């Protein structure tokens, strides 16, 4: 009689643990082809096996696409992998803007105390500080909006795929139970063993249908929404770059304006 331990492959790599990016971000990607890579003397039906292979391939592509979009959003390899948990943006603009405001306050105060120069002559850095802080606000706002735009794709990666994996595991365990029931029936040849085999067969078929129905309704039928989410992300990215450029003041320099020369050397006449 086969058991779960005796039929487990001993030369296969570790199975992926549940995480947001289950396959693309796993260190042993390529060693295994699915969340339940085991060697058995029995196998899924051809239709179920084909559907599972398609889901695994789709999940792997979705992981890589989502990772790329998150990196494009924040341009940071560390925080990009944390965006499915919390909003994390680059704080360079916020830090620079706060520093400039602090610098201006200290600079003006120091000039008033140390000299008699007119503080109005000091060139203000407030416009630059205001622009940087506004850019930081825009970054956070757009980041939240982009995460909302990708909600459908994120749901597949973080929830739907792992529900499929759970149903697949249940189906595989049902196949194991049916295999064990058949083995017992061949040994005992009793009415009770036949009933146990019939019950295990019904359970196996039900588990297979539940898994396949879930794949069709919750994954395959939702691919259009996943694609639409990516297109929304693209459109919003274009608007984001335009909004950021609009925040930067337009410094126009007149064509006839010439920079003042502070050099004491005069050109020859």
UniProtKB/TrEMBL annotation:
Bias-annotated ranges (Low complexity): 193-202
The highest taxon in the source lineage is Eukaryota
Where does the record place the region Disordered? Answer: 183-203
Q: Write down the PANTHER family for this protein, in alphabetical order.
A: DUF5045 DOMAIN-CONTAINING PROTEIN-RELATED (PTHR39364:SF1), PROTEIN CBG04867 (PTHR39364)
Protein name as it appears in the record: BAR domain-containing protein
Source organism: Caenorhabditis remanei
Q: What is the lineage of its organism?
A: Eukaryota, Metazoa, Ecdysozoa, Nematoda, Chromadorea
């Amino acid at each position: 009689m086969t058991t779960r331990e005796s039929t487990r492959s001993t030369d296969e790599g570790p199975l992926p643990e549940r995480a947001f990016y289950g396959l693309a971000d796993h260190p042993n990607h390529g060693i295994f082809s699915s969340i339940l890579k085991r060697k058995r003397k029995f196998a899924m039906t051809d239709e179920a096996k084909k559907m599972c292979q398609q889901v695994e391939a789709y999940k792997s592509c979705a992981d890589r696409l989502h990772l790329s979009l998150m990196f494009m959003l924040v341009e940071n390899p560390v925080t990009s992998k944390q965006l499915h948990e919390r909003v994390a943006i680059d704080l360079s603009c916020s830090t620079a803007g706060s520093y400039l405001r602090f610098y201006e306050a200290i600079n003006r105060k120091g000039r008033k105390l140390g000299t008699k120069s007119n503080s109005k002559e000091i060139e203000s850095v407030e416009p630059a500080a205001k622009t940087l802080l506004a850019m930081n606000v825009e970054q956070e706002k757009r980041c939240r909006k982009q995460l909302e735009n990708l909600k459908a794709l994120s749901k597949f990666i973080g929830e739907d795929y792992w529900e499929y994996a759970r149903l697949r595991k249940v189906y595989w365990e049902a196949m194991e139970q049916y295999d064990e029931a058949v083995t017992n029936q061949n040994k005992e040849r009793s009415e009770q063993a036949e009933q146990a085999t019939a019950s295990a067969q019904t359970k196996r078929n039900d588990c297979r249908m539940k898994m396949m129905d879930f794949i069709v309704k919750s994954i395959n039928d939702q691919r259009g929404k996943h694609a639409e989410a990516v297109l929304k992300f693209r459109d919003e990215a274009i608007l984001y770059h335009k909004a950021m450029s609009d925040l930067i003041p337009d410094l126009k320099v007149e064509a006839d304006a010439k920079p003042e020369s502070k050099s004491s050397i005069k050109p020859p006449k």
